[in-house]
Design a protein that fits this description.
One of its GO terms (molecular function) is polyamine binding. It is found in: Periplasm. Keywords: Periplasm, Signal, Transport. This is Polyamine ABC transporter substrate-binding protein. It is a single chain. The protein is of the alpha/beta class. The chain has two domains: 204 residues, D-Maltodextrin-Binding Protein, domain 2 (3-Layer(aba) Sandwich); 146 residues, Periplasmic binding protein-like II (D-Maltodextrin-Binding Protein, domain 2, 3-Layer(aba) Sandwich). It has 14 helices and 13 strands. Helix 6 packs across helix 14.
């Protein structure tokens, strides 16, 4: 799954359950569309059990972030179209049998990288943090992530547009078997340039990630506004190109497992399940810092519901005992600070699931850039790819 792109597949899998009796229509309803696997089943079941006496719940599990963003767009488009009149509309039918626009979900998973576009395109509406009892428990970095202005830019005085419920890192994964003969293990971004890895690594098919890690290697920020002005950046990108066997954001792990590549840069939520199944795969967070990603709850602008239910789900995910389950069962980090006994986490996964404050402080979310900066990144990317 590619966390950073609008260009990949949109296959979906619907897993819905309505916890309602014969009086369903009289009960409040909460429709949630979330990224598949982003919440453990144990957490979803506990929320169902908690709410079954007061609300009807419908969860749809969707395969890709791109599909969820497409749905946000389609709901907005449908909302702008008049409902077509046909013969059924002339009959004295119950309202639920009459033709109508598809109902949008009340809460939807949005990746942090997509948040700015969702705001600019008027696809979501702000949340009210005063209605979230756990909001004050969120560290500043998470509050800053979702406070944006109308252009989707970070703004300390902006609205709260979403609520994070899990997060992770861009990491370096490697095949232990292949590195045994090298007598060293990857530690930081600079290792990608070592001669032993020529034509043996895979990188995400994404300019912000690849150019960003190169900027980090040079001591700069992932969010550098004028990358074309950074000395030695173009030269380092040209040196990195011969190291790359393939660029992929969604099919990079199988070659690593098979040994066709020795090292891959990818996202922790992709790599941790592979580490659990294939013991020859290990991963590290680069010592100089990396890019961060987060999955967020967002409220579609067309949603018409009792928003108290939405806030209850957000607060539920932020309860310390539930946040602990997200970490232990979902194998991803929670934005709520937790005291976890490392012995409860598989030894190989501890570096990825027990935050290192020193590395975390050096890491960054990919911020929205202005059009001129985006053009510079695209030009550098095109120049690098032309060398292949």
């Amino acid at each position: 799954m590619d966390r950073r792109s609008f260009l990949f597949g949109t296959g979906t899998l619907l897993l819905s359950q309505l916890l309602a009796g014969c009086n369903t229509q009289e009960r409040a309803k909460l429709r949630v569309q979330l990224l598949k696997g982003s919440l453990p089943n144990q957490v979803l079941q506990k929320f169902r059990t908690k709410m079954q006496q007061t609300a009807s719940l419908e969860f749809a599990s969707v395969e890709q972030l791109s599909s969820l963003f497409d749905r946000l767009q389609s709901w907005q488009q449908n909302n702008q179209k008049p409902i077509e009149e046909d013969w059924r509309s002339q009959l004295p039918l119950p309202s639920w049998l009459k033709p109508q626009n598809p109902n949008p979900a009340n809460l939807v998973t949005v990746g942090d990288y997509w948040l700015a576009a969702a705001i600019r395109q008027n696809l979501i509406q702000p949340l009210d943090p005063t209605q979230l009892s756990q909001w004050s428990q969120l560290p500043n970095r998470w509050q800053e992530l979702v406070r944006r202005n109308q252009a989707g830019q970070f703004d300390a005085k902006g609205n709260v547009w979403a609520a994070p419920y899990r997060w992770g890192y861009t990491v370096i994964a490697y095949n232990r078997d292949k590195f045994q003969s090298l007598n060293w293990k990857p530690q930081d971004w600079g290792d990608l340039w070592r001669e032993e890895l020529r034509d043996r690594i895979s990188l995400p098919n994404h300019p912000r990630e690849v150019i960003g890690l190169t900027l980090k290697y040079l001591g700069k920020s992932y969010n550098t506004e004028n990358p074309s002005q950074v000395p030695d950046l173009t030269a380092q990108l040209n040196r990195l190109q011969p190291q790359v066997k393939l660029y992929s954001s969604d099919t990079y792990l199988q070659p690593l497992i098979l040994g066709d590549t020795w090292l891959a840069v990818g996202w922790s939520n992709d790599i941790i399940p592979v580490m659990q199944r294939h013991r020859q795969i290990a991963a590290i967070i680069p010592q100089s810092g990396t890019s961060l990603w987060a999955d967020l709850w967002a409220n579609p602008i067309q949603a018409n519901s009792d928003r108290a239910l939405e806030y209850q789900l957000i607060d539920f995910c932020w309860q310390p005992q539930i946040a602990r389950q997200i970490l232990l069962f979902g194998r991803t980090n929670s934005p709520i600070p937790l005291q976890i006994d490392p012995d409860n986490i598989q030894a190989e996964l501890r570096p990825l699931l027990v935050p290192n404050d020193n590395i975390l402080d050096k890491s960054e979310f990919l911020r929205p850039l202005d059009p001129e900066a985006i053009q510079q990144y695209q030009a550098l990317w095109q120049g690098m790819k032309e060398k292949s």
